[in-house]
Amino acid sequence: MKRVLTALALIPSVVWVVLWADPWIFLAVLVTVACLCYREYNHIAAAYGFGAPGVVGYGAGLLLLVCWDVPWPALVGIAVVALVMVMRDQDLAHALPRAALLLTGILYVFGCWKCARPLRELNPHWLMYGLLLNWVGDIGAYYIGRPFGKHKLAPRVSPKKSWEGSIASVCASTLLGSLYLQRFLPSVPLWQAVALTAAANIAGQLGDLAESAMKRGAHVKDSGAILPGHGGFLDRVDSTLFALPVIYAYLMLV
To answer: Domain residues of the chain, as ranges?
Structure first.
């Protein structure tokens, strides 16, 4: 029940921010969500025993998120700064793993969320589509995988996930996502809408498994407890973080 009530409270707010909010309000919400996600990632990373990536990740991540065109020298600079910062660690055996955790968090959280801005500026329905297909996929996986799931998808990473639920997720999101594109973005050919939705859903499922692997390695059950029934923000958007770059790449190529 907590899960349903939280969703009912959040979905109208998310839809308004994505489709109709002023660009500055949208950016403020995006920055806030990205920072909350990074805070939870920081907690997970710290549990590996190499030390938390720390506050540097917020600064570098916000630079990546807010600046429209971040040239590759800036990314190299972030990597250099990360390596310099971790040299202060008392145990130098932790320096490289800690730098890797820092860079991974910046690209994983802020890099993926960066795709949300150009998608919304091109058409708010592109971003709404990216969020919707993962919501629908999660519902399909839950209601089919839970009663009918017999074959484990990735038992070492997430024992409750099944191939039946995964296939249901792809089918549900492909159906509704394709219909959404045909309704609000009719310039997309139907076959491309189907292929893109399926690819984005599969990427989202990989994102879910990736976050599960991080939590399992850190012996953490949930990334946080800010969303009753859902865990943390990172638990809620792990699929979206992997799906948005796929949609953005499609638009850049096509």
So the answer is: 2-253
